[in-house]
Design goal:
Layout: E1 6-15, E2 24-34, E3 39-43, H1 50-58, E4 65-70, E5 73-74, E6 90-93, H2 107-117, H3 123-136, H4 153-165, E7 171-175, H5 183-200, E8 203-208, H6 211-217, E9 220-225, E10 228-234, H7 235-240, H8 245-252, H9 259-272, H10 299-303, E11 308-311, E12 314-317
Parallel strand pairs: 3-8, 3-9, 6-7, 7-8
Antiparallel strand pairs: 1-2, 1-4, 4-5, 9-10, 10-12, 11-12
Helix pairs in contact: 2-3, 3-4, 4-5, 8-9
Length: about 325
């Protein structure tokens, strides 16, 4: 197997509310990979640590432990001043299209900055490159002389994508890039990003809580809960045949338009997550964080951390899938 473009191993990120307080583990021994040209979805409910993983990869949050390798280079503890050479290989698209652009700069100035910083284009060539980028993301050439206030949220996100791909990065971290957009604009953004990945060979770590969005763009999925990886596998396997009880609860909580299907999902959610809202109570740090909510939990789940087990070509961290435990009823439903 070829070396992955991004290789995150045993990543831990901790926060303190005060210098004497006990650190809160926002990310706890997370391991994941992204291959060259691959789109991997990182999913989980709010507070699961998805964005923190992305920020650690981008160098915006300092890891407490673990390693991050990009293109074979260890970038785990590189300071901001040392990460300048990474910006051509690593870029980001953030959630809020209204906050991601400087309102005092024209679009042309915003897009020309990364090109000029890396000395790849002169002023004239940079303008030509910017016009090409704008055309690629579906915006007119005259957008180059306009300010962000002249654009809608979807158009601003297109500009943010153009900025991210301006240096032809190998990897783009996409942190909820479509969550602030309407459904129609979301679909257009997903088509755009999929096309760019296919044409340019750009890999993406796509962070989202909307499973339908992830299903439309990602080849593989990593499921995160309270800072830990619960399950990984191909998008089809994880979303169509979930193994971990948390993955099944997460899927059951996703709304659908059909009232009958929604009623069935509501019933499935109650079975999969009968005590929602009690997460964390009665569970030792080394136990499974989902144990207080899990209908299949046994005493071992609360006191011993489940091993990562390979099942049908994917991984799952659950005591119900260890060698000495039977597969739970409905695990492949």
């Amino acid at each position: 197997m070829s070396t992955p473009l991004l290789d995150v191993k045993d990543l831990g990120v901790e926060y303190r509310s005060g210098w004497r307080s006990t650190p809160n583990r926002a990310v706890d021994d997370v391991s994941l990979t992204v291959g060259r040209g691959e789109i991997v979805g990182l999913v989980g409910e709010s507070g699961s640590g998805k964005s923190t993983v992305g920020r650690a990869i981008l160098g915006l949050t300092a890891p407490a432990r673990g390693t991050i390798h990009l293109g074979g280079q260890d970038i785990t503890h590189r300071r901001a001043a040392e990460r300048g050479d990474l910006s051509t290989g690593l870029q980001a698209v953030f959630q809020d299209p209204y906050a991601s652009l400087n309102p005092a700069r024209t679009i042309g100035r915003t897009l020309s900055e990364p090109l000029e910083v890396h000395g790849r284009f002169g002023a004239a060539d940079a303008r030509t490159r910017i016009e090409e980028l704008l055309a690629r993301v579906g915006l007119p050439a005259d957008a180059i002389d306009r300010y962000p206030s002249a654009f809608s949220g979807g158009q601003r996100q297109r500009i943010a994508i153009a900025r991210a791909i301006s240096t032809d990065p190998a990897l783009v971290i996409c942190d909820e890039p479509t969550s602030a957009l309407d459904v129609v604009t979301q679909a257009r953004m997903l088509d755009l990003m999929t096309g760019l990945s296919r044409e340019r060979g750009t890999a993406m770590l796509f962070i989202a809580h909307n499973l339908a969005v992830v299903a439309a763009i990602a080849q593989r999925v990593v499921v995160l809960y309270r800072g830990r990886v619960m399950e990984t596998g191909t998008t089809r396997d994880v979303l169509c045949r979930p193994l971990h009880p948390y993955t099944r609860a997460l899927i059951a909580s996703s709304p659908v338009a059909d009232p009958l299907r929604q009623r069935k999902r509501r019933a499935a959610r109650k079975r999969a997550d009968p005590v929602a809202g009690r997460e964390g109570t009665g569970t030792a740090p080394q136990g499974c964080p989902f144990a207080p909510r899990c209908p299949h939990a046994v005493p071992t789940c609360r006191i011993r951390r489940p091993a990562v087990t390979l099942v049908d070509g994917r991984t799952v961290a659950c005591h119900l899938f260890t060698a000495d435990s039977p597969e739970p009823e409905g695990a492949t439903a």
